[in-house]
Specification:
The structure holds three protein chains of three kinds. By secondary structure, chain A is of the alpha/beta class. Chain A is built from ten helices and eight strands. Chain A has a five-stranded mixed beta sheet with strand order 2-1-3-4-8. A three-stranded antiparallel beta sheet of chain A has the order 5-6-7. In chain A, helix 6 packs across helix 8. In chain B, helix 3 crosses helix 4, helix 7 packs parallel to helix 16 and helix 12 runs parallel beside helix 13. Classes of the chains: A alpha/beta, B alpha/beta, C alpha/beta.
């Protein structure tokens, strides 16, 4: 990927004088996931990293930079979040410069750490066809994509190069990894209703209410005004009860229904490793079936819950 | 907050199946309830006085009444609160009659349910705010849709009362069904002699603008400020120039045009004035029949028109009228009798509808008032009238009684005898329904003085026989079959909702019943109002009505419009949305879903924010449900109020 | 005493004021007997319904939720029920994932004149919920929660 990275750096150097900031990735404290880098001076460009550890979706920083000229480095999936922000007029297209990249897959740091036993000594990560190679203290260690990559990489639709102002690397089909590992949604579907409730009860009793899922979500633009921590309106009470925590997850899912691009930031950010994207995934599946809509595809579309058809062809209403 | 709860017995209506005393006792346990009692009739004068007194004695600042539906007495009790010095919105109702005592049989379950509904109401009330109504300007104009006798009466009364009136009529002339009638029951006075002058008054009234051959295209706005777009259909004649001289019709070569006004038993010309008393008396061209418009040649009318009024290139025109109130008076249509195969289903030329017969009786009709059979022009001698064709028949989806057919049939038998003394009328009926002033006397005269033979029973078949018709039926009083040879059969077709009634209701945002008749605000107490403020009903659009009832309702609707528009400003409903600026992040989701365009994006200290235009907001709450931060809140139905109700029910 | 001690289940109805609430009134005026489980929350429009009210109801232990509004195109506010239809259809995907049987939630349209229809909707929905039995409740809780619970529980005599 060296050539992509060089292309990217060149493009950013060229564009930087016209921009207030460019958001990219750089090596952070964790060897398995790169951290965001806010570039304001040319000297910073050298610090940019680009490899499968660039998992974080940087789009969430854009609404906070509104009014400034911002460049952003984006994987294909990240571009969908940008599209969604544009669609909802939460950012202005003329103020954003998108540097697209040919992503080959992004590491899920949590599972990679489990697979490796530790993140120490990881120097480089490369994806080569059907295997992911971690170079640990000079020793290559190979894993299958299902063991160490983010689940969203399995349904990757590729980079929307059309929307990108610059594109580094080869435009082409996204990597195909075959069947994804079993999702929580699939596991839930094998359960009966009470088991599902108990599943969430157990999961949510581990939730520490840190709201990292919300802070990481690129579409949670309310942030300080989140309904979860308000008494006007008082949707969730502060009782340390799985019911209230699940209620918050329902709020997050319904507030992002038809908007969520399944970027996975909520789960990536969760310190307890809770499967909090499951509800959003279930809603998205239905929205695809009923409204034939996927979020983050076309900046000129309206999210399906903010419009309607007088005759909804895919809705079968019950006869009484 | 000090809350008082009043549980109404409503006589035995509630107390019969709900232990109201136990409900009141339970209510005392709810938070902030300081007083609870049961009352015989909470809405009665002593009942209301009890509430006022308790407000004073217990320093109540909120009241819950558990009684009937809020759709009935919410306004009543709000006024009670105001009399006692409380804000009218510090009030909630628990509907323990329509939703409890009248539908549940188990007294214990009903009592529990009633207590929980009171609990919900208390929890909501605890979060109510004192709301103040604002004011907004109104247009002192009325639109009347439909120019039948009900609409004419409504238009004239409004206009006489000083309002500007826009009268919209779908047909080329006003007059409606009444203008087609020869005589009216029970006085047998001439229909056009009593309607004609009223039609002329409409034409001449300085306050009335008449749009004939026009339909309502769309309705925007709300009470006091409706914007109604009217489609003025092309008449292909410049009505400002047309003098109604009739030269064009006399010269029109297309003389075999079906005559709508004469119920298709006569023929007319492609360009015509529908009937001599038409208002406006203007010619219009039937585009389907006109040779020039269908084939491109002819233009005879244009050549003879002394004022050069013919416009073959005329197009529909849209005009928008701003009005403060709307009166729907769109009348009814006649049942399609071809649905009855046993009556010949339209195959026999001499089996006709009562309205067609009416045209035969009329001196201005196609036979100039001589009764002639459509098939051969012969004068009939034996005439069979069949009642309830499209009334009181579940099998064809018309279970209701049209109500006026018994009367017009009696009138037609009398007129038949007057026209042809040697004739004999037979009437097959189910029941005679004549409950009106002088109505029953009238049907008796038809039988006793005019010799009409009434046979109680249904007709099973009509068969042609030697140029006449063999009518086979049952006489259920004598318990035998009867067969009558008739020259002419007249079907008393019932009334059904006017064509397009449903679409108009949707435009006006009013409800309609399963048959398409518009729904009144309350079947007894609001027979003229609808559930949409500022929209009133007159005449048969609300349900089949005879002339006196239609005229009465036309006047009543006018009175409602006049009283509404007698004020210079209307009080705005404060139950509208409001945006808490501190919570709003300016995402604009509320603006994108508002059905009324009542939300605008503003800038507040450099930040985008949503702002509600309170006079435009109608209080639906679509924005509140769309706002992720809960910044937009529909007052009186806030998230917290509804959550409180949910939490009261289950937690 | 819990309401479920009798044979009743906890069913909440969210009804629009203009059509379905009036339709329920019409059913009452017509004395159309119905099961007593349902408790109705009156709203101006189904468009006012945040699907989260329904989630909240189930979280709190409701056994069934019924939404009813004006028929499509008959909305008093023109468009409210169209938005409601989309929101509620979407909600249908959420409920089963968190363990709420899809049969516990329905939405429908009942006009002000359809008292009979309202009766049959209430009767068949109540029957449907009874077939599913009571909604499983959250069992676990922190000690703090267990302390708080009696204070927030409504007293039902």
């Amino acid at each position: 990927m060296a050539s992509s990275l060089d292309e990217l750096k060149t493009a950013i150097r060229k564009a930087l004088p016209g921009l207030d900031v460019v958001i990219a990735w750089t090596a952070g404290p964790d060897a398995l996931s790169h951290a965001p880098l806010f570039i304001t001076e040319e000297a910073d460009v050298a610090r940019i990293e680009w490899d499968p550890r660039c998992s974080q979706n940087l789009a969430g920083y854009l609404p906070g930079l509104r009014g400034k000229k911002a460049g952003i480095v984006a994987k294909g999936c990240d571009v969908r979040s940008i599209v969604e922000l544009l669609q909802e007029k939460l950012i202005d297209r003329e103020d954003v410069v998108i540097f697209g990249l040919d992503c080959q897959g992004a590491v899920d740091a949590r599972s990679a750490r489990a697979a490796l036993g530790s993140s120490r000594g990881v120097r480089d990560v490369a994806i080569d066809g059907a295997s992911v190679c971690f170079s640990v203290n000079g020793e290559p260690r190979f894993f299958s994509p299902g063991e160490v990559l983010q689940s969203k990489c399995f349904g990757c639709a590729g980079a929307d190069a059309g929307l990108c102002d610059h594109f580094a690397g080869e435009r082409g089909l996204p990597p195909q990894f075959g069947n994804p590992p079993e999702s929580t949604l699939e596991r839930l579907e094998a359960m009966d209703m009470e088991e599902r409730l108990r599943f969430w009860e157990t999961q949510m009793s581990r939730c520490i209410r840190c709201y990292a899922c919300r802070s990481a979500c690129p579409l949670c633009v309310c942030q300080d005004h989140c309904a979860a921590q308000s008494r006007e309106p008082h949707w969730v009470d502060q009782t340390d009860h799985p019911r209230e925590k699940l209620m918050f997850q329902a709020i997050h899912a319904l507030h992002t229904a038809g908007r969520c691009t399944e970027c996975g930031e909520c789960e990536r950010a969760c310190p307890m490793g809770l499967p909090v994207m499951t509800l959003k995934r279930a809603l998205n599946r239905r929205i695809k079936d009923v409204f034939d809509y996927q979020a983050g595809i076309d900046p000129n579309q309206t999210p399906p819950l903010f419009e309607f058809r007088e005759v909804e062809t895919n809705i079968k209403e019950r006869e009484w | 907050m000090n809350i008082g709860v009043f549980v109404c017995h409503c006589g035995s209506n509630i107390a019969g199946t709900v232990d109201t005393e136990a409900v009141a006792k339970a209510a005392l346990e709810y938070r902030e309830v300081v007083f609870a009692t049961d009352a015989m009739y909470a809405c009665s004068e002593p009942g209301q006085a009890g509430i006022v007194e308790a407000i004073g004695t217990y320093a109540l600042d909120g009241v819950v009444v558990a009684s009937c539906t809020p759709r009935m007495h919410e306004a009543t009790f709000r006024r009670t609160l105001e009399r006692a010095g409380l804000n009218r919105y510090m009030f909630e109702m628990a509907n323990i009659r329509e939703h409890v005592s009248w539908v549940g049989k188990d007294k214990a379950a009903n009592t529990r349910k009633a207590a929980e509904l009171v609990h919900m109401a208390v929890e909501k009330l605890r979060r109510n705010e004192r709301l103040q109504a604002g004011e907004f300007d109104i247009a002192k104009r009325v639109m009347v849709i439909g120019g039948g006798v009900a609409g004419i009466q409504a238009a004239l009364d409004c206009a006489d009362g000083g309002l500007e009136v826009v009268l919209v009529e779908r047909e080329p002339s006003i007059g409606g069904k009444m203008s087609k009638l020869d005589k009216t029951f029970p006085t047998v006075d001439c229909s056009s002699c009593i309607l004609g002058p009223k039609m002329v008054d409409v034409a001449q009234h300085p306050n009335i603008t008449l749009y004939a051959l026009s339909e309502v295209d769309s309705v925007d706005g709300f009470v006091g400020n409706f914007n109604v777009t009217v489609r003025r259909k092309a008449a292909y004649v410049d009505w400002d120039a047309c003098t109604g001289c009739g030269e064009c019709a006399a010269k029109c070569p297309s003389k075999k045009t079906p005559d709508r006004f004469n119920e298709f038993i006569g023929l007319t010309t492609a360009i015509n004035i529908p009937f001599p008393q038409a208002i406006p008396k203007k010619a219009s061209i039937n585009a389907n029949a006109c040779i020039k418009l269908t084939k491109g040649k002819c233009g005879a009318c244009a050549k003879v028109c002394p004022t050069g009024a013919i416009r073959f290139d005329q197009k529909d025109e849209l005009v928008t009228e701003k009005v403060g109130a709307i009166i729907a008076a769109t009348g009814y249509d006649l049942f399609d009798f071809t649905k009855y195969g046993e009556y010949g289903g339209g195959r026999y030329p001499d089996v006709i509808t009562a309205m067609q017969y009416e045209r035969l009786l009329s001196a201005s009709g196609p036979t100039e008032g001589h009764i002639r059979r459509p098939s051969d022009g012969a004068e009939p001698r034996d005439i069979v009238f069949i009642q309830c064709v499209g009334s009181r028949d579940k099998s064809i989806g018309r279970p209701y009684c049209t109500g006026f057919c018994c009367m017009y049939t009696a009138k037609q038998t009398i007129l038949t005898k007057d026209h042809m003394p040697d004739s004999q009328s037979y009437v097959f009926y189910m029941d005679i329904r004549s409950p009106g002033k002088n109505y029953d006397e009238f049907t008796r005269r038809a039988m006793e003085e005019y010799g009409a033979k009434y046979i109680r029973g249904r007709v099973s078949a009509i068969q042609p026989k030697n140029g006449r018709y063999l009518v086979k039926g049952a006489d259920t009083l004598l318990g035998r079959q009867v067969e009558i040879e008739a020259d002419l059969v007249v079907l008393a077709v019932g009334a059904e909702a006017a064509r397009g009634a449903g679409e108009l209701a949707e435009k006006l945002r009013i409800s309609y019943d399963p048959y398409g008749f518009f729904l009144e605000g309350h079947p007894k107490l609001k027979p003229v109002e609808t559930n949409t403020a500022g929209v009133y009903l007159a005449g048969s659009c609300q349900g089949p009505k005879d002339i006196p009832s239609s005229v009465a309702q036309g006047g009543a609707a006018a009175a409602k419009a006049l009283s509404l528009l007698s004020k210079d400003k209307l009080a705005s409903d404060p139950q509208v949305s409001g945006v808490k600026l501190a919570r709003c992040i300016g995402c604009g989701k509320c603006e994108s879903v508002c059905p009324f365009g009542a939300i605008e994006m503003i800038e507040f200290r450099g930040m985008p924010k949503a702002s509600i235009i309170e006079t435009v907001c109608q209080g639906c709450g679509v924005c509140t449900a769309a706002c992720p931060q809960g910044a937009a809140q529909l007052r009186h139905f806030t998230d917290n109020q509804i959550l409180a109700e949910v939490n009261a029910l289950c937690l | 005493m819990s309401v479920t001690e009798g044979k009743e289940l906890r069913i909440i109805g969210f009804l629009c004021n203009w059509c379905s609430y009036a339709g329920a009134d019409t059913a009452g005026v017509g004395r159309f007997a119905q099961p007593t489980d349902l408790r109705i929350v009156r709203l101006p429009c189904t468009g006012r319904i945040n699907p989260l009210f329904i989630v909240r109801a189930f979280m709190n232990g409701a056994d069934g939720v019924l939404v009813s509004g004006c028929h499509p195109r008959d909305c008093h506010y023109s468009e409210g029920n169209f938005y409601a239809r989309r929101r509620l259809e979407t909600l249908k995907a959420l409920l089963p994932v968190i363990g709420v049987d899809p049969g516990r939630f329905e939405y429908t349209w009942v006009s002000a004149s359809e008292g009979q229809r309202w009766r049959s909707v209430v009767a068949s929905f109540t029957e449907q919920v009874h077939a599913l039995g009571s909604m499983p409740r959250f069992m676990s809780g922190t000690s703090l929660d267990l302390c708080l619970r009696p204070a927030v529980q409504p007293r039902v005599f």
